[in-house]
Sequence to fold (188 residues):
Amino acid sequence: MNLILFGPPAAGKGTQAKRLVETRGMVQLSTGDMLRAAIASGSDLGQTVKGIMERGELVTDEIVVALIEARLDEAEAAGGAIFDGFPRTVAQAQALDAMLARRGSTIDRVVRLKVDDEALKARIAQRYAEQGRPDDNPESFRVRLEAYNRQTAPLLPYYEGQGKLVEIDGMASIDAVAGAIDTVLADA
Fold:
């Protein structure tokens, strides 16, 4: 099973993905984690990514698609992938569909965590204060949230047209969101 967790930064995608890794053995393909690992490596790619993320911009499709493709074998061996933070644009969604089709696979479900932008801004300010992640500073977050809303909104009709989109109240408790996701997966 291949699942996309869809929602803006700080919507809870990572929390839910980690739970699915533990309970179902799926592989989480988190572009945010992959990009932070590239930065931590100190590589040329990492330095490029660091500058882009600190400005609150989105990393290019080419970089993100390459990072995802490098992990697909692992996900297939585990029985499925949870795409967390990817795709963010219709071009990335089309690239993902093509990558999976070449492998005889597809996206099974897209779960959109519906959340309130103002609540997310408060969430990120708290996370920044507690964890100090440079890509979570409130100003960069505002830029990321605006980019998400502008660039990712077209994905809703893209996946809805494929009959794969399911919406869940992402403002509910972690356990309630988890239960709703489990129900969606049971119906897949």
